[in-house]
From TrEMBL, chain A:
Organism classification: Bacteria, Pseudomonadati, Campylobacterota, Epsilonproteobacteria, Campylobacterales
Signal peptide positions on this chain: 1-23
UniProt-recorded name of the protein: Cytochrome C
Species, as recorded: Arcobacter acticola
Sorted UniProt keywords: Signal
TrEMBL record, chain B:
Record flagged with keyword Coiled coil: yes
Keyword list, A-Z: Coiled coil, Signal
Stretches assigned to coiled coil: 24-85
Protein name in UniProt: DUF3373 domain-containing protein
Cross-referenced InterPro entries: DUF3373
Classification via Pfam families: DUF3373
First and last residue of the signal peptide: 1-20
Length: 106, 496
């Protein structure tokens, strides 16, 4: 019980000490499904495989992700995906890029 | 007259000369002033010129730059190809290692208590995946899950040996056996067309990912596996075939999946000690429980990425009940299962970032027994059980970017019997509860790999046999021994 109390007390400390992790690939996958699967006419895995990891990273760094998104999915209009949400989708794209070696499960 | 004319001319000439002289003087002064101004300007220009950076003129070799760009493009393509090859041409491993402490408390009908203040466990999952080509991939998971140290009386060891060669303190230093636990191993074939039709599909066979399905995965902070966890949360060997029907039916995000498998194989082992069986290895043993099979369908009529509906029907044959007289499992009958689940990934649309990131679900499930002469759940009749499960999972208000909190509540009726023995709760399956159960939890990401979780599960039993099998052992009218159970757990988890 003592051990559990220590762990409980440690929760708050961990909450304060943890670093903020803004972008999330799993969240990106959900967001793609919600916002882009239909207008893009493809699955998230297929979208991510359009580029290599370095290419996605370069698009992220140059701020040209939305431009590329519209190029791949012409039905998507500028502003359809909020900038704050784009980061998650980019992270998902990097995770499953064509040179990532990651295998989407069933 | 001549003299006066000469005089006048001389005077005029003189005066003109003196006027010209004045003019020259004036002009000279002006020229001097101009010269001073020009010198000042020249000085200023010279100073400005001196301040300007020296522009080096380089000769631009357009052709050379063009060649370099071509070469860079080729090198970049080669590097990407090499990365694709190296990334995809090997088994990709991932690790999920969890250290957990559980405080477990049971309350008995007579008022006494059973407890374990700190059950400490380590669980390791080594996941693997390999995509050989666009259509086929392999997935596997090796597993280890053990309490700290050896067990009391050495009674729960994984390997039956005479003596203590597998004692936990030296189990990896001693030569024991070659056992390794396999949680998952299956191949997956995917194709965008099914015999020329516009139906993407996939098929999979092996030891399938049949624990931690939707929606228990939310509490477990992981991606949902194949089945709906309201009725099925056990490890299983079998197959699945999935068809995406959105393009053919027009129903957004719709798909259905046929799943089946075998939960128990009746086969006489090789070199059996019974002399009657020693020569008929792998034949069926008429004296033991027959094969336990399961076949089901999961259908999703609608999923727009935010709102989704999942349905499930399954049938299991020859389910096991524990026969106390013979101390062995017996075939007691069949079972039908049905589930409907509503899920929303985000409440409303754009009301707030918090609500956009909130997940809620409601699930209703039903079980129906079809007993043989041996009866099921203590009843000779077909009995229907029902269960309701509600849950919400949202960002934690104090640190919304890296942690999530959740609350779940479920209630099961008298004859409710789920197949959720693989649920990740040490105090028994909360979903199997004949009564009420609720859970509050918080999962927090600490770094890219480390996470921390805390949860409290409380199960309040109205009937006996919540965590038993399908025979008389699962009779709800039996004496209720444990009236409630609770599990407080805290864990650290490394995933990468």
């Amino acid at each position: 019980m003592k051990l559990l109390k220590i762990i409980m007390a440690g929760t708050l400390a961990l909450g304060i000490a943890s670093s903020t992790l803004s972008a999330d690939a799993a969240k990106g996958q959900k967001l793609f499904s919600k916002l882009l699967k239909e207008p893009c006419g493809m699955t998230g895995a297929k979208f991510a495989a359009k580029h290599s990891q370095e290419e996605w990273k370069a698009l992220k760094a140059s701020g040209k992700f939305e431009e590329e998104l519209i190029k791949i999915c012409p039905n998507v209009k500028a502003g359809d995906v909020k900038e704050s949400l784009q980061e998650h989708i980019i992270d998902f794209s990097i995770e499953f890029a064509n040179d990532s070696g990651n295998v989407p499960s069933c | 007259m001549k003299k006066s004319l000469i005089m006048l001319s001389a005077v005029a000439a003189f005066s003109v000369t003196s006027f010209a002289s004045d003019m020259n003087k004036e002009m000279l002064n002006q020229i001097q002033a101009l010269k001073v101004q020009i010198e000042a300007l020249e000085k200023k220009v010279a100073e400005q010129e001196a301040q300007k950076p020296v522009v080096q003129q380089t000769v631009v070799d357009e052709k050379r730059i063009e060649n370099i760009e071509k070469k860079l493009d080729t090198v970049s393509k080669t590097a990407t190809s090499a990365k694709i090859q190296s990334g995809n041409d090997n088994l990709k491993w991932d690790v999920d290692f969890r250290t957990q402490v559980d405080n477990i408390q049971y309350k008995h009908a007579d008022g006494s208590k059973s407890k374990n203040n700190a059950l400490m466990t380590n669980r390791l999952w080594l996941g693997m995946g390999y995509k050989a080509d666009d259509n086929s991939s392999f997935h596997g998971k090796l597993s280890y899950n053990k309490a700290f140290g050896d067990t009391a009386n050495h009674s729960q060891s994984n390997v039956n040996t005479t003596g203590y060669s597998n004692f936990d303190w030296v189990t990896n230093e001693n030569a024991t056996d070659n056992t390794i636990k396999l949680k998952e191993a299956y191949w997956l074939y995917t194709n965008n067309t099914f015999f020329g039709t516009d139906v993407p599909w996939n098929a999979s066979v092996g030891r399938r990912p049949s624990t931690d399905g939707l929606p228990i995965n939310l509490r477990n902070d992981q991606k949902a596996n194949s089945p709906l966890s309201h009725v099925v949360d056990v490890e299983f060997d079998g197959f699945s075939v999935r068809f995406d029907t959105e393009l053919t039916t027009g129903l957004r995000g719709s798909w259905f999946k046929i799943c089946g498998g075998r939960g128990l194989t009746n086969a006489i082992p090789r070199f059996d000690t019974d002399p009657d069986n020693s020569a008929i290895a792998y034949a069926e043993d008429e004296d033991l429980n027959v094969d336990v099979d399961l076949l089901g369908i999961i259908a999703v009529p609608y999923d727009d990425g935010q709102y989704s509906v999942y349905t499930n029907y399954a049938k299991a044959w020859n389910l096991i009940g524990f026969d106390n007289t013979d101390s062995e499992f017996k075939d007691v009958g069949d079972m039908d299962y049905a589930t409907i689940l509503f899920k929303t990934e985000g409440i409303g649309n754009g009301i707030s970032d918090y609500l956009d990131d909130t997940i809620a679900f409601a699930s209703f499930a039903m079980s129906k027994t079809n007993p043989n002469a041996l009866e099921m759940l203590g009843s000779p009749d077909s009995e229907i059980g029902t269960s309701v499960w509600l849950g919400i999972n949202a960002p934690c208000p104090i640190s919304p970017d890296d942690s999530r909190i959740g609350f779940e509540w479920n209630q099961g009726s008298k004859y409710w019997r789920s197949m959720t023995y693989g649920e990740d709760t040490y105090a028994g399956s909360k979903i199997a509860t004949r009564g009420q159960a609720w859970e509050v939890y918080r999962n927090q990401k600490l770094t890219d790999a480390l996470s921390f979780g805390l949860s409290y599960v409380y199960m309040d039993y109205d009937y006996a046999g919540s965590n038993s099998f399908f025979g008389a052992d699962g009779d709800p009218d039996a004496t209720l021994n444990v009236v409630s159970a609770q599990d407080v757990r805290a864990y650290m988890r490394y995933r990468f």
